[in-house]
Amino acid sequence: MAAAAALALLVTRGGGVPRARALGSLRRLHTVYQTVELPETHQMLRQTCRDFAEKELMPLAAELDREHRFPAEQVKKMGSLGLLAVEVPEQFKGAGLDYLAYSIAVEEISRGCASTGVIASVNNSLYLGPILKFGSEEQKHKWISPFTSGDKIGCFALSEPGNGSDAGAASTVARLDGDEWVLNGTKAWITNAWDASATVVFATTDKSLKHKGISAFLVPMPTAGLSLGKKEDKLGIRASSTANLIFEDCRIPKANLLGQLGMGFKIAMQTLDGGRIGIASQALGIAQAALDCAVDYAEKRMAFGSPITKLQAIQFKLADMAVALESARLLTWRAAMLKDNGKPFTKLHPQ
To answer: At 154, which helix (H) or strand (E)?
Structure first.
């Protein structure tokens, strides 16, 4: 109250603003601060995901990574919790939540196991995301509903050996032959490749139109004409398979075109925009686990008869880490909330 009265007096002296207006501004500001706290639904989701990660993922994470082993049992449990289809409406057997909920879930899962986090992230945003936004009702029922429970997961095939993730330079081609599309080409570094039951594939349907000649397709896995390359031996996140998808006269029904002909570039760009929130959330989870590990070590490491957390230099290091992490978390949450509200979220401008 003393601070409020002082501010009110200062404002009144400066420009004749009534005391009540100044106090009202403070109350409104206090309300803004209160809304920074997560909604109750999101708090409950966060705690549920944290409990799941600590019980089901943390004890196995190192073993899964070392053995390059897909966490099939844990993925099915995530499916039962709704974590593989967070934003998908309930009519398609999803959780029916928002992108902020998705970000929170991916962070907590990644904190327990980075591999499991990327598996969930790809299925949510890169596979289900474009089908939910651009698919027909029939496609949504066929290609979304079976991929929410954890029995099946999907992948996203954009990158190629010669052009990375440059969607406008896809050398994989698709030609229409009667009632079928015929795909030829190679997609590289595809997450979930060895464990997926379907993929969203981007291919050139008209080279003369450049990026406007790219289209998106839904391809079941396995299927004739589609083979998998070797699993990449990565430095980490090895429980999630990464491999090439090789298309050799791979035939799929004409109805498997996602969106309209030539919309592939738009679909890829919008999907990647949302996917980056998932990537940021994975990084947050990994960073939080690293900070937790650092704090635990600092509390146990003794020097001069005391834990090194008593040393100011170590306190500064941990504080800097915590501030950077919380700043990144709030920025990620803001991007998710902007997306939920239909506002631009790929680049934030100063207010």
So the answer is: strand 154-157
